[in-house]
Design a protein that fits this description.
The chain is α+β, with helices and mostly antiparallel strands. It has one domain. The chain contains 2 helices and 2 strands; from the N terminus they run H-E-H-E. The chain has a two-stranded parallel sheet with strand order 1-2. Helix 2 links the parallel strand 1 and strand 2. The longest helix is centred in the N-terminal third of the chain and has 12 residues. It starts with a helix and ends in an 18-residue tail after the last strand.
């Protein structure tokens, strides 16, 4: 059974904000659909679309408990002709 990104996101947000002084997020770009975003080390067909992630992450800019974000697994040598995906605008 797949729960969907929004359900997982909502559950994670409720957990990390329960009696904590702050939280951070690590985003592994392998979650993105390799047909839409190049440069990932372990491409998984049918991955997430960047727009869906941007919508979820944009809620963080007004969250006072959000402290840091790490973005990993971006490899320009795996991208087509060294063209990198458009950066996230959160």
């Amino acid at each position: 059974m797949q729960r969907g990104m929004e359900a997982v996101w909502n559950e994670a947000m409720s957990i990390v904000q329960n009696q904590t002084s702050g939280f951070g997020i690590s985003l592994d770009l392998d979650v993105l659909d390799p047909l839409k975003e190049a440069g990932v080390g372990s491409p998984e067909s049918g991955g997430a679309l960047k727009n869906r992630l941007v919508d979820m992450f944009s809620t963080l800019k007004t969250n006072p408990n959000f402290l840091a974000m790490e973005i990993v697994e971006d490899n320009p040598y795996l991208a087509t002709q060294f063209v990198m995906p458009v950066p996230f605008a959160i």
